[in-house]
Amino acid sequence: MKRAFLVGIGLVALAVVVVVGLFSAREDAPDEPAAKGPDLAAQRARLAGAPAPLAALYRDASELLDGGEEAFEKRLEALRGHPVVVNKWASWCGPCRVEFPHFREQALKRGKEIAFIGVNSGDVDSDAERFLRDNPVPYPSYRDPDFEIAQLMRANGPFPQTVFYDSAGRIAYIRQGQYRTEADLAEDIERYAK
């Protein structure tokens, strides 16, 4: 009886170790890692010749910018006349990591007509900066530790979220959830970024 009890406890302990190991591995590995893509110099070269407001935006490529709501609103104002696609993301968000390459590719394809901006909400700066170094994009992200910018753009819900502004600066559409394919993102850009 004592032996059966010890074997039972050993099996339970082994099961706990396996389950904890699986969950730990799952948290560290997103659904699909973000594809690194071209380096920043190549990205900037592809966007050379963009109109001045867009060129100014892309000079801050892959940077985490300070300034909160005020700086974000000032940037949107400077981009009037161009549609803007804003993606709320965090480095710890697996679905955000999966869709990140889709935003990079669409920004590279459409960045001379449409502005792209990231909003890094509820994240640790060092983690977000590392993620951007490893997965550069041709546009900047604004730090949003307290979700103030997310609230301003009505993207308080779950991660990720994408907000489409029309060329007059009005919110045209808010997408909750991950873009599983670049084609899905492209379809929404064509529909709402006008």
Key structural traits:
Glutaredoxin, 194 residues, 2 domains, 6-stranded mixed sheet, alpha/beta
Question: Briefly, what is this?
Answer:
With 194 residues, the protein is an alpha/beta fold.
Strand order of the largest sheet: 1-4-3-2-5-6
Q: Output mean pLDDT.
A: 86
Distance between the termini: 74 Å
Overall 3D shape: globular
Structural class: alpha/beta
Reading the helices and strands in chain order gives HHHEHEHEHEHEEH
| CATH superfamily caption of the largest domain | Glutaredoxin
Give the domain tally: 2
| CATH fold node name of the largest domain | Glutaredoxin
Poorly predicted segments: 5-33
- Work out the helix count: 8
Helix content, binned percent: 40-55%
Element layout with pairings:
Elements: H1 2-28, H2 40-46, H3 52-58, E1 64-65, H4 68-78, E2 84-89, H5 94-110, E3 115-121, H6 125-134, E4 141-144, H7 148-152, E5 161-165, E6 171-176, H8 182-192
Parallel strand pairs: 1-4, 2-3, 3-4
Antiparallel strand pairs: 2-5, 5-6
Helix pairs in contact: 5-8
How would you describe this protein?
There is one protein chain. This protein has two domains: 1-30; 40-192, Glutaredoxin, CATH 3.40.30. The model is unreliable at 5-33 (pLDDT under 50). It has a six-stranded mixed β-sheet, sandwiched between helices. It is globular and about 35 Å long. The chain is built from eight helices and six strands. By secondary structure, the chain is of the alpha/beta class.
